[in-house]
Amino acid sequence: MTNTRRQFLRGAAQLGAIAPFLTVGALAQRAAAADVESARFGSTAEEAYQIAYKAHEDLMTLPDLRMHGEEKIAMVVYPKMTMLDLVGPQFFFSAMMGSSVYLVSKDETLSPVMGDTGFAIVPTISMADCPNDLDILFVGGGTSGTVDFMNDQTSMDFVADRGARARHITSVCTGSMILGQAGLINGKKATSHWAVRHLLPNFGAEAVDARVVRDGNVMTGAGVSAGLDFALALLAQIRGEAYAKSVQLAAEYAPDPMFNAGTLSSADPKMGDAMHKMYATAIFAMDEASRRQKRE
Amino acid sequence: MTNTRRQFLRGAAQLGAIAPFLTVGALAQRAAAADVESARFGSTAEEAYQIAYKAHEDLMTLPDLRMHGEEKIAMVVYPKMTMLDLVGPQFFFSAMMGSSVYLVSKDETLSPVMGDTGFAIVPTISMADCPNDLDILFVGGGTSGTVDFMNDQTSMDFVADRGARARHITSVCTGSMILGQAGLINGKKATSHWAVRHLLPNFGAEAVDARVVRDGNVMTGAGVSAGLDFALALLAQIRGEAYAKSVQLAAEYAPDPMFNAGTLSSADPKMGDAMHKMYATAIFAMDEASRRQKRE
Q: Cβ of A184: how many Cβ atoms within 10 Å?
């Protein structure tokens, strides 16, 4: 919009009821409202910067808002994982000011890691170089990639070692199968993607049909999209409710799916059964891996 | 769990009421239930594969499930964008069997692109090589990265060109500012991240405070996490309700955040105001860019 047109419309809005045509009046009111809103954020770049700076200070004075921390957060990245499992929580973790978020790969060359939806993420640190003492160890899920990870000794040694020392042991989706294989959820309540939740007892865990399950220092999330609910809950636990809510607002996390079909119990039964069996090879392989590990 | 222990527990479950201790009985029942569930997915790898294969066929026979398509989908990847804006919808798009999902970068070397939460994604095609006629053009958002994109002629030419030909012109978060700058939402209803929604009239669009807004062939989503609701809606439009629901189930998308604080109206007013002003520099710069474009 040109400045001239804005001035015209602002003028028209001030004229109000005597605007010659209703549409011109409505347009003008809308443009004027936008101008008023815009004015809150400065009329020069420098003013905008000062407003943002002051807002940061204002946030720091809000009660119970733990603005800064030094958490060390490791998120495991592995081939054929479901990247959304990781990217949802990563948004929340990266918003924890002062924290360090590591994307950890087995591969020391830090080559991009291809996920199971066809795109690759670049890891930032190798398992060998990852800090020993973590505030959060996070593992996401997948299908055949998760099975491969469960059957890889180096990867499992990493999870077992860092998990044993971590302040929070966490997963989303079938990532809890990996935690289980590493012996980290034995005796704990946990959840997983609905398709494999029944396997949790193989690891000595109690399967809970819930979106997010916290038991002591273990927090697990359900399938894929549950990563957002999981991360919000973990953030609230670590940085407090006010901080968690500020990140929820940044993410505009007020979900509203047009269908209620995201769980096995809400899905059409024929569809749910077929979808479940589509995962048969991964379910079978995870089941096998869990039994083999226990035999060793 | 060893096979021996499983056999013992299964035996104990069959004994039922005469199990000597309640805990053993409960454990055994749980293990037996897990075994029954496991048995549905085969007792050998080959059986599991056959079950999965048959399930795929079963899904194809469900009414109104458009299982395969050949959609060409381009998702723009640019520096300092919010990667979750893209990765949420990418999960849904990649689940459209037969479709091609391109991650499009301006940079012809296809170097990894660093997002605003500190990790990089590898693009798969350059703007120059991207197909001309797309079924879906998708643009995600960000703050300063989005401003840079709006002020880059090559990038905007790409969006304007592919958008003018695309069957569906789409965005999440401040991606709608980019669509606006490219002249693609003039006269349309649209939404955006709450922090900049008031700027939509600068592009001739009508700002709607909604999670997902569809107007003709333009579909826009609200901030960041709205990408999941957006993608579900678009998938339903393109592949039908049954297909969309099957992907919703795969994603276990039954969101349940522990707080209701994801919108400006539900947030604490002091927090909301400060958070809004934290974005002042980006808001000011997007406002400026939109006015400059209109003057040209």
A: 26
Q: Are residues A113 and A228 in the same domain?
A: yes
Mean pLDDT of the B176-181 span:
98
Looking at the structure, tell me whether residues B40 and B103 fall in a common domain. no
- For β-strands A136-139 and A72-76, DSSP reports them as parallel
Domain span at A21: 3-60
* Residue B275: CB atoms within 10 Å: 22
Candidates B51, B201, B226; nearest CB to A277? B51
| B277 lies within 8 A of chain A by CB | yes
Final residue belonging to a domain, choices A36, A60, A84: A60
Which of A16, A32, A60 is where one domain is finished?
A: A60
- The reply to whether B40 touches chain A by the CB within 8 Å rule is yes
When comparing pLDDT for A2 and A107, which is higher? A107
B130 annotated active-site: no
CA atoms within 13 A on the CB side of B200: 28
B227-243, pLDDT tens digit by residue?
999 999 999 999 999 99
Q: Is the Cβ of A254 closer than 8 Å to some Cβ of chain B?
A: yes
**Residue A156, domain CATH:** 3.40.50.880
Distance in angstroms (rounded) separating the CA atoms of residues A182 and B248 = 30
Same domain, A97 and A128: yes
Do A33 and A156 fall within a single domain?
A: no
Shortest CA distance from A229: residue in chain B: B257
**Closest approach of B100 to chain A, Cα-based (Å):** 10
Q: Do A271 and B246 touch (CB under 8 A)?
A: yes
Range in A148-157, A175-184, B33-42 the model is least confident about? B33-42
Measured between alpha carbons, how far is B119 from B115 in angstroms, rounded to an integer? 6
Which chain B residue shows the shortest CA-CA distance from A196?
A: B38
CA A155 to chain centre: 22
The per-residue pLDDT for A34 is 65
Chain B from 155 to 174: CB within 8 A of any A CB: 173
Angstroms from A14 CA to nearest CA on chain B:
18
Using a CB-CB cut-off of 8 Å, the residues of chain A touching B12 are none
Query: How many domains in chain A?
Result: 2
Across the interface, of B1, B52, B266, the residue whose CB is closest to A202 is: B1
Here the tokens at position A41 are 């954020």
| B48 SS3 class | helix
One domain, residues A42 and A83: no
Percent with pLDDT over 90 in chain A: 79
Is the pLDDT confidence value at B3 over 50?
Answer: no
My answer on whether B43 and B97 are in the same domain is: no
Strand-pairing partners, residue A169, are A137, A218
Can you tell me the distance from the alpha carbon of A166 to that of A72, in angstroms, rounded to the nearest whole number? 10
Confidence at residue B38, expressed as pLDDT on a 0 to 100 scale: 74
Query: Does residue A82 fall inside a structural domain?
Result: yes
The C-alpha atoms of residue B117 and residue B121 are separated, in whole angstroms, by 11
Write down the ipTM of this complex.
Answer: 0.89
